[in-house]
Description:
- This protein is of the alpha+beta class and 776 residues long.
- Helix content is 46%, strand content 13%.
- The chain contains 29 helices and 22 strands.
- Helix 11 packs antiparallel against helix 12 (191-214).
- The protein is globular and about 95 Å long.
- The two termini are 31 Å apart.
- Mean pLDDT is 89; it is low at 217-241 and 652-666.
Amino acid sequence: MKRNIIPxxxxxxxVLIYFYKAAMLGGVFITGDMTTSDLxxxxxxxxxxxxxxxxxCSLPLWTPDIYCGFPVFAEGEMGGLYPLSLLLFGLFPDxxxxxxxxxxxxxxxxxxxxxxxxxxxxxxxxxxxxxxxFTFCGFFVTxxxxxxxxxxxCWLPLLFFxxxxxxxxxxxxxxxxxxxxxxxxxxxxxxxxxxxxxxGAGFYLLFRIGSQIxxxxxxxxxxxxxxxxxFRRKNRALSPFSPFSxxxxxxxxxxxxxxxxxxxLLPTYEFTGLATRASGLSFQDAVAWPYPxxxxxxxxxPYYYGDSAQATYQRDISGQxxxxxxxxxxxxxxxxxxxxxxxxxxxxxxxxxxxxxLMATLSLLLTLGKYTPLFELLWKCMPGLKFxxxxxxxxxxxxxxxxxxxxxxxxxxxxxxxxxxxKRVVQVAICALIILDLFNFGMKxxxxxxxxxxxxxxxxxxxxxxxxxxxxxxxxxGDESWSMxxxxxxxxxxxxxxxxxxxxxxxxxxxxxxxxSSSDGYPAFAPQRxxxxxxxxxxxxNISLYKHSMDDPLGFAVPKPQFTKLLxxxxxxxxxxxxELKSPDLIEVHQTRFKENTxxxxxxxxxxxxxPRLLCVSKAEVITDEAAILSxxxxxxxxxxxxxxxxxxxQHQGSKDTVENVVSLPSAGAAQFTAxxxxxxxxxxxxxEDGFLVLGDTWYPGWxxxxxxxxxxxxxxxxxxxxxxxxxxxxxxxxxxxxxSFSLGYWISIISLGVIVLVMLFGNxxxxxxxxxxxx
Length: 776
């Protein structure tokens, strides 16, 4: 036991050295790409919101700060119930918790690999080298900005460990830790990697069962043919019942994982039904940003097509646009060749080597996506696969497999060195070469910047916070200005302060960091209605862009009246941008100038067409066609102060007339917020006549409205908002977000956890009759 602790401690030390600035709290991760940053604009803002909710002892279900209101928990990427996130963000400030979450992910990744490698018979040194290579491989290092992805992926070796223990011990009790691991992957917030992990684990189980049927013993990697079998049992064929029992253990892992994670899965399932991927992706969309065959050379020369960290990456490979981090499967030159060598020397003598050789081959073929028929076949046959992009992420299974094979290659070499001193010299040389190679490859990919610099409020934020009214902002042209910064700073080599300066434009979702609401958002996918309306008003028919020169990444823009009107209906009072905007509806009210003209001035425009978030109106128009609604909303004669667009005909309370026949009054009434919280809004309204209260927050299932204590129907209003029908007089209205999907998932998870606890307490009694060894 002590001998195993030392390598794990050494691995933890290497991780701390690798991320020394973040570990010592001297830096904040700001990894991005060419047009935005999934770290700065998605993963960190979501977890910062989680941090605030935990401090306030509230559930992180809904945020009003993006997309006019957004079901951030249901979207899933926040990982709001992931155990480590709850612990870290409950104890530390958001940026410290985020640093430690990343560091712990890398530590767990190596530790789990080491534990699994030891379980299948690798000795300490090859297991340690494999753990180092897996921890710092290109897949994890270049995906650091996708915190939810590496959080889910780091559990892969432990899932394989549980499957192996199920096979070794022939006890279904191992399905429980396996299910816990699968649940953690789901709760981490990246369903694709949880799905891929289970695919890999299922293949692993099928191959191992087939091997056990084919032969009654396995070869230890240090032994010769027929010596010291790993599983000591009688040399006779398996009973027909055993493979089905082993398969039932795998199914049980899935059931336990889904049951424990139901609290996340059910809200996400509901969300997906309303989102852009409701019916899945087309095959063309799934394989966009591919892994061309030519990219295989980067397994040996990772910077053959350039380096995104230095803004030199050649995105166009053989006529296909590619992404560096999605195509980086670098494990180090030595581990790659040791893996190939290990397969060659052991493929006829060891079932694990055959297994991982085949897994490496298949996962690499799947990574190639549309360039081989295998992925398309799997995409058509496997339920659920059509919801995911980037088959490139099968690189996780390739990296894992080739590094396991490298462990066998090292074992073969160590066996043939008889001199103790020579063996130690070779071990030190292998260890040093691999660490130096991987550190040299990856340490520059994830820059950090001083917390004081990054977390300080930009001048634009300070200006906006002086306005105490309720409003939203819109960040215009943020992708182009980020690209400008990326080019000016030469990736991560130059002045990182430029990225801090760019924070002032509040590119979605970074506005969440400052508690300022935006009409826009940047999730992986969003409800279709939100995507539709944003695509509509950002259409080139509604805005014209001009550059000052061909070499200038920015310029000036001329928004048309329908652009500012649609923004105004969404309560957008201010627009932040590095562009110059020319519109009679926009007034420049603030400008941030940067020292030595390092960047263009950051401008803040006030939108004169802004509409209050809360309105009382007396007239409704019923329109059911989505395109017609958007056209009507942007038309010059539509007045949001007097009219609301609904999508169903209804009887007005206290009137026999349909809503379309209600007479429009100069003022239907007045309303004000009495409380405004993410998941609960209370309003006091005084209606002069029967009419409607229009709340400019996103309509979404799970919201309930109560008028004077009685539940009232919420109508979808003005395409994306909420409205309730009110009668004349003073009324108290309460909106509460209490989704049934969350409540149902919560109780399923609680019941699943309770059953697991009972089984753990009385496991011998419960599972003894179901021992897989019966009949062997």
